[in-house]
Design a protein that fits this description.
Number of domains: 2
CATH superfamily of the largest domain: Single-stranded right-handed beta-helix, Pectin lyase-like
Strand content: 35-45%
Distance between the termini: 81 Å
Radius of gyration: 28 Å
Structural class: mainly beta
Number of strands: 44
Shape: elongated
Number of helices: 1
Low-confidence stretches: 1-20, 26-30, 84-93
Oligomer: single chain
Helix content: under 10%
CATH class of the largest domain: Mainly Beta
CATH topology of the largest domain: Pectate Lyase C-like
Mean pLDDT: 84
């Protein structure tokens, strides 16, 4: 016998050979019904040559989950694989293996979804793991009729692009109801299916309130928003810190791609691709780092820095093809609005103004000198236009800014008289030096 966990007591009787075979397995504690036995010569490596038997409280159902009844010659050594959500140690490092209804690997799974109750089953598994655990999803499509409620100390991992969470109706795909701490979501696709679903209250792939948690290598498709991170107090009004959003592909949101709430602090957003019609990234919070991302998709703005954002680093990103300003800081009245401390270092910023010649690559405009943006660093960036359909007015345009350093940048393709514009009398404590552009080296 192989891979039989000692977790149930039952008698299995079925015509598996030319003569009757009775198998008795006795263990403690008892196992909740139903559970499944995969029977074959090599269940792990040759599941298509196996039969799945369902064991219920009232009997045995053979040839389940699309498998065929098997007959083995007398004397054949067969192996049994027991699968149930109560058994965490069968394979894959202690993870609970979950097979979607159309998976080709059902024989490996602890749970097999039916396509209609997928969300309820998944949320039931998560809520049962009071001390944490890992859910691993095999290939196939998981149909979501309600949000998955992620919890603390849970790892939810898919099989890359072979695992797809598909929204069915006006829902958000993942939305937790309490602060999620020390959790991770890895390696899967979320398809909100906005070509089929009409969204009024839903359409968000990842609506997360979290701290010390990770979203890694997740692709979102057909969304209203790809990610809302600590955006409101729906789940918690506490700060979320040390979060990591990395290596994700957030595709073609109809509104803002990522909404980064002010409750998010001391976190990272790295090596992601973001496409959207609204701003790629709208941010309130800080301190945070945004490194190595690609902001694209013809959005209104690549980056919208809202009131109150502070202590932000943008390094080694590509910002391109915004309809209006590529990077826009419309500073209004907000507690702490006079202490922004924002650095733009070694980025490529190009081709904004697809909707007219009145837009800039970086536009910072405080409401007044009493409500100013302070300590801005713009250094080592490539800022240019190389597309004739774009109209870049200025590389940098400043109004009511106190404390700005613009140094070592390369400017090209703007239509204004100079690459850097400063509203008369409204910019103080500045230095602009060592920049090179098609209007010559500019020093102020």
């Amino acid at each position: 016998m192989h891979s039989v966990a000692n977790n149930f007591s039952t008698t299995l009787s079925s015509a598996m050979t030319s003569s009757q075979t009775t198998l008795t397995l006795t263990t403690s504690p008892s196992l909740a019904y139903p559970y499944y036995l995969t029977i074959g010569v090599d269940p792990l490596n040759s599941p298509s040559a196996c039969e799945i038997v369902e064991v219920t409280a009232t009997g045995i159902n053979r040839a389940q989950q699309g498998t065929a009844a098997q007959t083995f010659a007398s004397g054949t050594k067969v192996q049994l694989l027991l699968t149930s959500g109560h058994i965490l140690e069968l394979q894959n490092g202690g993870a609970i293996l979950i097979a979607p209804s159309n998976s080709l690997q059902k024989s490996r799974a602890n749970y097999i979804l039916d396509g209609t109750t997928d969300t309820a089953v998944i949320n039931g598994i998560i809520s049962s793991l009071t001390n944490g655990g890992k859910l691993f999803f095999l290939d196939g499509t998981i149909n979501l009729h309600a949000p998955i409620n992620m919890m603390s100390n849970i790892v939810l991992e898919g099989s890359g692009t072979a695992t797809v969470f598909l929204a069915v109706g006006d829902i958000n795909a993942f939305q937790n109801t309490a602060m999620m701490i020390n959790a991770a979501m890895l390696n899967f696709v979320i398809n909100m299916n906005n070509g089929v679903n009409t969204f009024v209250n839903g359409g968000v792939a990842l609506y997360l309130t979290m701290s010390q948690s990770t979203v890694n290598n997740v692709t979102t498709q057909g969304t209203v928003h790809s990610l809302l991170l600590n955006w409101d107090a729906t789940a918690s009004n506490n700060l979320g810190y040390l979060n990591r959003i990395q290596y994700c592909n957030f595709e073609a949101s109809t509104l803002e791609g990522v909404l980064w709430g002010y409750r998010t602090t001391d976190s990272w957003f790295c090596y992601n691709n973001i496409g959207s019609s609204g701003a790629n990234l709208s941010i309130q919070g800080g301190s945070c780092r945004f490194i190595g991302n690609h902001f694209d998709g013809n959005p209104v703005n690549n980056l919208l820095i809202q009131n109150g954002a502070t202590c932000l680093l943008f390094a080694n990103n590509i910002f391109e093809n915004a309809q209006q300003h590529s990077i826009y800081l419309p500073i209004g009245a907000w507690a702490g609005a006079t202490n922004h401390k924002i650095s733009f270092v070694n980025n490529i910023i190009r081709n904004c103004g697809t909707s007219g010649a009145v837009y800039d690559l970086i536009y910072i405009a405080a409401a007044s000198l009493t409500d100013t943006s302070t300590e801005i660093v713009i250094s080592g960036n490539q800022m240019y236009k190389d597309n004739s359909s774009n109209d870049v007015r200025y590389a940098v345009n400043l109004t009511n800014v106190v404390g700005v350093t613009i140094i070592g940048n390369s400017f090209n393709g703007y239509t204004g008289a100079t690459p850097v514009a400063m509203a008369s009398g409204s910019v103080t404590n500045y230095e602009v030096i060592g920049n090179c552009g098609n209007n010559g080296v500019t020093t102020y």
